[in-house]
Amino acid sequence: MSERVEVEVAEEVPPPEWGRRQPLGAVSPWIFVVVVGLLLLGRLVFAPYLTAPALQAWATIFVAICVQALPFLAFGVLLSAAITAFVPASFWTRALPKRPFLAVPVAGAAGAVLPGCECASVPVASGLMSRGVTPAAALAFLLASPAINPVVVVATVVAFPGEPMMAVARFGASLVVAVVAGWVWLRFGRTDWLRIPSRPVGHGPKWRSFVEAMRHDFLHAGGFLVVGGATAATMNVVVPRAWLESVAGIPVLSVLVLALLAVILSICSEADAFVAASLTAFSPTAKLAFLVVGPMVDLKLIALQTGTFGRRFAARFIPLTFVLAVVVSMAAGEVLL
Amino acid sequence: MNRLTQSMILILLGGAVLRITTVSTTYLNYVKPGFRPFLIAAGVVVLALGVIGLVQEWRGAHADEHDGHDGHDGHAHAPGVAWLLTLPVFAIFLIAPPALGAFSAKSEEAQARPVAAAEPYDALAAGQVNEMTIGEFVGRAWGEGADSLAGRQVRLTGFAVPSQKKKDRWYLARIQIACCAADGVALKVAVLDADMPPENTWVEVVGTWKRPPSGRLEPGTIAPELTVTSLTSIPQPVEPYE
After folding, report:
1. What is the DSSP letter of B53?
2. Helices (H) and strands (E) in chain B, counts
3. Cβ atoms of B188 and B111 closer than 8 Å
């Protein structure tokens, strides 16, 4: 008797989770289980076969780019989220000159204080824009900070012993490119080209919107970083460096080739000086172009900028920056080196 | 993609980074040793983001519907591109990428110049074996200090790479990185008077520098040569790069 009563009670009172949040990602957690299953299975079944030297070299470089960029990305995202969550918008209107024309160089010069590489500067710039900073000023900051911060300057001095002018020329040329690019954008840029990432206006405690912004930015920028890393790794393995030597002696072409190489290799701005120094066959001006272009335009940055600010922005801003960087480096190389 | 999936991707990624930095030294295949604290910090941050997301999701399931975690208000749905963050995790676990080796050293036939030492090299002791990096050896052989190598015994560590041009020639090579494996350059020393071990084998060689017939080598041209007296196979060093 008593047994039957219990059964009836259980049927009458459904468990509390019934009917409440059924569709809660009914699909993607399962995709996720599949992913983890593939990982475990793959480790046993496929791993012994994934040993082709080219594939391994590609994977090493791919993982290296991702792993190396991760701390910078995390730092940039953290800073950006902190800017959105904890720094009031009024701070930026007070800190930067009112006139956008003046705000651009000030923001560019402010790039000198953020010791990061290019992966950190994209989320920070987008955070600045969403807090009401003039896009042109935020863009000047975006371009300048990976190239002129103290860590990069010191790395350049170390990589070129006995050639201090290289670091000076790099600092000067990068700042000029950043400011000019900012001004050009201010004058000719249209607001509908630029997608300023909307920020979740957190209801509730500040730390919550902080965590929310961080997670969103990290997943977003991280995904695009992976695109850039995979492309750069492919180029790194596929493009033979030997053909570079053949153009090293030709004046303008050699500058263009190293500028393109900087785009393709996507080396972190804190390390690119060492690579430039190892390209002994090239003229100092060509090496300078490598150092100025690299932190402003490279495959991983193109992916990050496209993802963050939109395709219409990237299609205009990236060629502009590239041309400016090459022209300014040539001029600076002529005068300083 | 809902918050649950986002959190799990973050946990997976953070876990993978912590796995290669804390319980193993695999990260040395990818970056300089100095990166470790930053990688651990980043791994912890990413993992924490994921765990916080899971906790919120679990709590949210019992709370009000305002939160809208199933993607009706803009930010809760992350872009699909975030799935790509599982790619490095797959690469780490499935391919388990080894340190760059003979494949990368071979594809660069033109010699790279090692990152120059800031101060001039010290004199080497006579009558004993001087341990040095391939970078230092190449740097000495190419620069003003070439005479400092004359008649001195040195011990070098690297892996074996066959020459692509000459059949009976092989190199002792090592990759030098400044920051991560993407900026690696191969440094090579031609080994004389010793049979080549299997490609990619790590060896320790003791020998003396052989002065080139022309007297001096231009930096960044051809590999300096080493006449070898002893050659020992060794396991791959923990730190594979110079």
Report:
1. H
2. 5, 6
3. yes
- Side chain identity at B10, as an amino acid letter? L
Provide, as residue numbers in chain B, all residues whose Cβ is less than 8 Å from the Cβ of A216: 75, 78
A7 burial level (CB within 10 Å; 0-12, 13-18, 19+): exposed
Residue B108, pLDDT score: 58
Q: Does CATH place domain B102-233 in 2.40.50.140?
A: yes
B28 to chain A, any CB pair closer than 8 A? The answer is no
pLDDT tens by residue, A10-55: 444 444 444 444 444 456 667 777 877 877 787 777 777 777 888 8
Distance CA B100, CA A145 (A): 31
Kindly determine whether residue A271 and residue B183, on different chains, have CB atoms separated by under 8 Å: yes
| Per-residue pLDDT at A100 exceeds 80 | yes
Q: Which residues pair with B233 in a beta bridge?
A: B203
Q: Which residues of chain B lie closer than 8 angstroms to A245, CB-CB?
A: 110
Provide the pLDDT for residue B227: 93
State the ipTM, two decimals.
0.89
Instruction: Compute the CA torsion angle B61, B63, B64, B69 (nearest 10 deg).
Output: -40
Q: pLDDT, tens digit, for every residue of B189-230?
A: 999 988 899 999 999 999 999 888 776 666 666 788 899 999
| Nearest neighbour of B42 by CB, restricted to A28, A39, A74 | A74
One-letter amino acid for residue A258 of the chain: L
| Number of helices (H), then strands (E), in chain A | 16, 0
Of A59, A200, A212, the CB nearest to B95: A59
Q: Pick from B27, B94, B97: which is nearest to A46 by CB? A: B94
Partner residue facing A55 (CB), from B31, B73, B95: B95
B58–chain A Cβ distance below 8 A for any pair:
no
Q: Which residues of A touch B10 (CB under 8 A)?
A: 215, 218-219
Which pLDDT score, from 0 to 100, does residue B205 have?
94
Cβ neighbours of residue B26 closer than 8 Å, sequence gap 6 or more: B19, B20, B92, B96
| Res. A297 pLDDT band, cuts 50 70 90 | very high
Round to whole Å and give the CA distance between A116 and A86: 21
Q: Quick check: A237 and B149 in contact, CB under 8 A?
A: no
pLDDT tens digits, one per residue of B119-168? 677 788 888 888 999 988 888 888 777 788 888 899 999 999 998 888 88
Q: State the Cα–Cα distance between residues A326 and A329, nearest whole angstrom.
A: 5
| Interface mutation target, options A17, A22, A66, A224, chain B, most CBs of B under 10 Å | A66
Size of interface A-B (CB pairs under 8 A): 226
Q: Which residue of A has its CA nearest to B184?
A: A275
Above 70 in pLDDT, residue A72? Answer: yes
| CA A19, A24, A27, A33 torsion-angle sign | negative
Helix (H) or strand (E) holding B225: strand B225-233
Q: With left for phi above 0 and alpha for psi between -120 and 50, is residue B127 left, alpha or beta?
A: left
Range list for CATH 2.40.50.140 in chain B: 102-233
- The model's pTM is 0.80
